[in-house]
Design a protein that fits this description.
Layout lengths: L3 H31 L4 E8 L11 H7 L3 E7 L4 E7 L13 H18 L3 E7 L3 E8 L2 H13 L9 H11 L5 E6 L7 H10 L1 E8 L11 E5 L6 E5 L3 H25 L2 E6 L4 H19 L1
Parallel strand pairs: 3-4, 3-6, 6-7, 7-10
Antiparallel strand pairs: 1-2, 4-5, 8-9
Helix pairs in contact: 1-3, 1-4, 1-8, 3-4, 5-6
């Protein structure tokens, strides 16, 4: 457990650093990618030359005998929901930051960018239960309270249930929004829930990991504890077969998640606790922007 004074210092650092970074760099990248993404149904009209056939309203077309298309209006405000995994494995970190602290820093950057653009931000913390739900609202003070909650919340369970968390979001939020899902994805059986969420929302998966989850530390016998089950076992880190198995398991999990995100057309941002997360965020936004421009 982090001492309270150290925790308060970390929260203040995240808040101050994030606001500065947003003003200098991130707000423009955020605005260029997300502003105007939200649309809602407005009316129908007769089909005209050049209209996108995907917007045809087949019910009205069948009723009138003439092709009609749906028209939409751009939402002036955007809503973002951040879903953050606060299960036991998120408190692991072999360097300066745990995975949860990395999530808090990235959340702060994106949430302050949203506040800077007068957009609404909501938050869901989850383990294998919904730990906290903050409804989407505007404002920097609202963001600061959520940063504090992410860093200070003590989860009621060490385990993860992505399926339940995603279904909770889909039940409470039927209107399309941008969803950032932060997790290490050390779970199974969530694939269908991820598909449903990607169908309803603009879903971005943020996969967080620590270097020691990919490569075992050099040395001999090491005692390790599973953060979610509490199981303790001694492992021989010098065993080449074990080292190879850990690396292969990590690579397979990453490949499976990437393939799933490709299938459901959801973006995936993979970050390690030692990465330059601000640089990676800006790169991510620019690549997303390029893909959107190419698709038009």
């Amino acid at each position: 457990m982090i001492p309270q004074k150290e925790l308060e210092s970390k929260v203040r650092h995240i808040q101050l650093h994030s606001r500065k970074a947003v003003l200098e760099l991130l707000a423009g990248e955020y605005r260029s990618r997300f502003k105007g993404m939200g649309i809602e149904f407005e009316d129908v009209r007769e089909y005209g030359h050049g209209d996108d056939v995907r917007t045809i309203d087949w019910n009205v077309t069948a009723r009138t005998g003439r092709p009609h298309v749906k028209t939409f209006m751009e939402e002036r405000e955007l809503s973002l929901y951040f879903m953050i995994d606060v299960s036991g494995s998120g408190d692991f970190g072999s360097a300066e930051m745990t995975k949860r602290e990395m999530a808090a820093r990235i959340f702060a950057l994106l949430a302050f960018a949203a506040a800077h653009n007068h957009d609404n931000v909501g938050l869901i913390l989850f383990s294998d239960v919904i730990e906290a739900h903050i409804k989407a609202r505007k404002g920097k003070s609202h963001v600061m309270r959520m940063i504090d909650l992410i860093m200070t919340h003590t989860a009621s369970s060490p385990r993860t249930d992505l399926d339940q968390a995603l279904d909770h979001l889909n039940q409470i939020r039927r209107r399309r929004c941008v969803v950032f899902l932060f997790s290490d994805f050390l779970d199974t059986g969530y694939e269908d829930a991820l598909r449903r969420t990607a169908n309803l929302h603009d879903l971005i998966c943020v996969s967080l990991s620590d270097p020691l989850e990919h490569v075992l530390p050099a040395g001999g016998m090491v005692e390790m504890r599973d953060a979610e089950t509490g199981d303790i076992r001694s492992v021989d880190c010098s065993d080449p077969r074990l080292r190879n198995r850990v690396a292969q398991t990590s690579s397979a999990r990453e490949a499976n998640l990437q393939n799933l995100c490709n299938e459901i057309r959801s973006d995936l941002l993979e970050l390690g606790t030692t990465d330059d997360y601000l640089h990676e965020l800006i790169r991510f936004f620019r690549e997303r922007n390029t893909r959107s421009a190419d698709a038009k």
